[in-house]
Amino acid sequence: MRRLAVFPALAAIAVGSLASLAQSAVRVDTSKPLTGFTAAGSATERSWEAKFQALPDSKRISDNMHLLAGHPHNVGSDAQRANAEWLVKQYKNWGWEAKIEQFDVLYPTPKVRQLELMGPKPYKARLMEPEVPEDPYTHDKSPAMPPYNIYAADGDVTAPLVYVNYGMKSDYEELDRNGVSVKGAIVISRYGGGWRGLKPKLAAMHGAVGCIIYSDPADDGYGAGETIPAGPMRPQWGVQRGSVADTTLYAGDPLTPGVASVPGAKRLAIADAKVIMPIPTIPISWGDAQPLLASLEGRTVPATWRGGLPMTYKFGPSVAKTHLKIESDWGTKPVLDVVATLKGSEEPDTWIVRGNHYDGWVNGADDPISGQSALLEEARGLGELAKQGWKPKRTLVYAAWDGEEPGLLGSTEWAEAHADELTKHGAVYINSDENGRGYFGASGSQSYELMVNDVAREMTDPETKASVWQRQKAAQTAGRGRGAGRPEGAANRETIEFGPAGSGSDYAGFIDHLGVASINIGFGGEDRGGTYHSAYDTPWHWDTFADKEQVYGKLFAQTAGTIVMRVADADVMPLNFTELSLTVKGYADNLKAEVKQLQTEAERRNRALKSGAYTLANDPKMPMQPPPALPVPPAMDFTALDAAMAKLDSAAKHYAAASAGAPALPAAKRMALNNGLATAERPLLSEEGLPGRPWVKHLLYAPGTYTGYGASTLPGVREAIEDGRFDEAKQQMVVLGNALTNEAAYIEKLASEIGVQ
Ligand SMILES: [Zn+2]
């Protein structure tokens, strides 16, 4: 379900200059042993990696996609069970142990969806996506989920309509200034600007009784490119489904936070599940939105609020009322995780978990089967390698997660079910979601950053023949590419950007809740499309507008498999803490700057309010309310945090210096060190969790409360400051400082265990 920042396709890209960059640049010095390996171990590893990289096959990836995305296969469907059983069979054929792990979760499905405009120009919304004659998959009559927002409350409301732009916090300030209230109204918001669940959440906080979310053609329809079937973008009746469960609080089954949804589990009453949205919410197409928007009266919206429809966008409220009725069957459905293992030869208790979800809202060819299809080729290759005699030192756990779309259900329930094992010896979780043509993106735990960079330097980008690393670095330099940016100094670092982990895909249960180091990887950014979470995300669309030849699917299987092999085979797992230390420093610098900026902004606004400037500047014929006064953040004391970071920095340097000799340690010492490395991120957890969300325990990154998918870094302190809770910010500063001090001590201990070589 992850929606990435996607940049416009490079039309006339300077392929020639990139290629010359590739030729001139030194690629990889293969005479140097790989990090974490002895010289002999490194040579053996390189030879196994070369054998592995020859195995993934594009045709098989394409076949996987056509099979898994051949029919609608949402949670609980017969097609999804058939997919699960097929996956188990494949893994077994490839020499893996494989099984289905089932969890029974709250999974509402719609019974009634009604939306109509009353008044002089009545309109009844279609709320469905018609077949596309050219796309045979859309003619499939097997059961599919109609467009709906899962985990929104039932309701039957009739009220005036108000347009709220993206429905984010700042949009409500604009509404207030224009004297428009959403109290008792139904809001209509366009998709974009932030995670979809924030729209009903903020609407309800402001007193709205219902929420409509539509796809504006400016964002992913005709404003962005030709529409289906002439081009890849969203057509008039295309709808984006999606979950509105508030996964910033906790992910997984809304009724079982913190524990697995297995028989006998303690479950909340539905009314007590805070992640469920309190107002009825429905996603619609722009075709259905247009008559509703046309009913709005009142002032014209500012330029940044305008979409791509040929009409004047107004705030509302409408005089004509809108009627919205949602009724769901609040039953339980099975979530079927397919989990396959390849046992490690030396440290079988240490787990390397690799996953991609396989449930789709409808066919889900791009999201998520493009990633899942490539992952399967990676797994087949590793199985084949094992048949040739390759033995990973550590246990590989490959997972096809079910129920990611509704709320990261399968991965979270599995992580909660195996929390004890994962806490003791879960070394890393490597996630992917959709994959496509373009740039390599990686984010997550910085302890694995250098290793991932090493692998990216060795893989070749098929379009330019530069290394995957150079291509991504070039994209960053040119302001393109995939993934979130690092706040400070990224351009000067000898690494490709490694953004923080937010939420929006299956790593949340691992990193946010359990502190298992996690990385999220994939290619993308070149093919654009407007099929996200619609019935038009089919293999036909993929083959017509995206990477039909699966060139990047194959590259992804090779890249991800190589990353897995490096962690699984190394004499000493290839972690490095200098990037962690640098990154935390970057986050802290960014936080300090933000405090200053908030102070300046608050002082400026409060001065302007006092002077009466807002009133005097008004157009008397169309006056605006002044904005509210802002709380001025007090000067924050960063001394303890700075001291903790200095300790972390020196520990990281000590470990980096000591670790060069580590691969040659005697076996017993190496194993003890590896056990320590596997759990190296655990000191960064807070036992109590973040304020107001005890399930989210990681102190470096969390899904942002008001950004949703986007990560908030140093979230305990940062969100308290942003929300004006300054005492809490001070308390959280202590919690963070202690955690970083503990992390530093932990790394220092690892370094001293290696000893002087
Ligand atoms: Zn997805």
Structure description:
A hairpin with a 5-residue loop joins strand 2 and strand 3. The chain is an alpha/beta fold. The chain is globular. It is 38% helix and 15% strand. The two termini are 47 Å apart. It folds into 3 domains: 293 residues, Aminopeptidase (3-Layer(aba) Sandwich), CATH 3.40.630.10; 220 residues, Glucose Oxidase, domain 1; 177 residues, Up-down Bundle (Transcription Elongation Factor S-II, Chain A). The strands form 4 sheets. Strands 1-11-13-12-14-17-15-16 form an 8-stranded mixed beta sheet, with helices on both faces. Strands 3-2-10-5-6-7-9 form a 7-stranded mixed beta sheet, with helices on both faces. The chain contains 23 helices and 19 strands. Zinc ion (ZN) binds next to helix 9.
Instruction: Bin the strand percentage.
Output: 15-25%
Radius of gyration: 26 Å
Instruction: Give the name of the CATH architecture of the largest domain.
Output: 3-Layer(aba) Sandwich
**Tally of alpha and pi helices:** 23
- What small ligands are held by the chains? zinc ion
Could you say how many structural domains there are in total? 3
Please identify which CATH superfamily of the largest domain we are dealing with: Zn peptidases
| Model regions low in confidence, pLDDT < 50 over at least 5 residues | 3-26, 483-491
Mean pLDDT: 93
C-alpha end-to-end distance: 47 Å
Classify the secondary structure makeup into a structural class.
alpha/beta
> What spatial form do the alpha-carbon principal axes imply?
globular
Q: Could you give the count of β-strands? A: 19
Largest sheet: 8 strands, mixed
